[in-house]
Write a structure and sequence with these properties.
Helix content: 25-40%
Number of strands: 2
Radius of gyration: 16 Å
Strand order of the largest sheet: 1-2
Oligomer: single chain
C-alpha cells in the first residue's frame, strides 16, 4: 500500500447515513500499474466474489477488450461473471441477490 494512505487505515467514517459501496475492480490498467488488479476471467471472478462477500452493493467490471460490442461483449463479460452469478443461490438465502443473466443482457441492450 502506498505509504501516503497509511494514515487512513484506522479511520472511522464521519457520516451517519447508510452508504452503498460499489467496487470497480478492473479497467484499462495492468499489473505493472497495480499488482492487485485482476487480469483474466478467473481473477476477475474471484475478486468480484470477494467484493460481494465483503458487502459491496455493486461490482463494476470491464470486458477484456474495449473493442467488443453486442453479443461478443456479453459473452466476454459473462466468462468472468458466470462464476460470480453462481453464488446467487447463496445470495438469495441471505437476501442479497445478484443480477441474473437476462438482466445483464437487458442492461447491455441485448434481447
Amino acid at each position: 500500500m502506498n505509504s501516503r494512505f497509511l494514515k487512513y487505515i484506522d479511520a472511522e467514517p464521519k457520516w451517519s447515513s447508510p452508504v452503498i459501496v460499489e467496487s470497480h475492480i478492473n479497467g484499462l490498467r495492468t499489473k505493472d500499474y497495480n499488482q492487485n488488479i485482476p487480469i483474466g476471467y478467473d481473477e476477475i471472478a474471484a475478486d468480484a466474489i470477494k467484493c460481494w462477500e465483503a458487502g459491496a452493493g455493486g461490482i463494476h467490471v470491464h470486458n477484456s477488450s474495449i473493442r467488443l460490442a453486442g453479443e461478443d461483449a456479453y459473452e466476454d463479460y459473462m466468462k468472468a461473471m458466470r462464476p460470480v452469478m453462481e453464488v446467487q443461490n447463496i445470495a438469495k438465502e441471505v437476501g442479497r441477490p445478484i443480477a441474473r443473466q437476462d438482466e445483464v443482457r437487458s442492461i447491455l441492450g441485448l434481447k
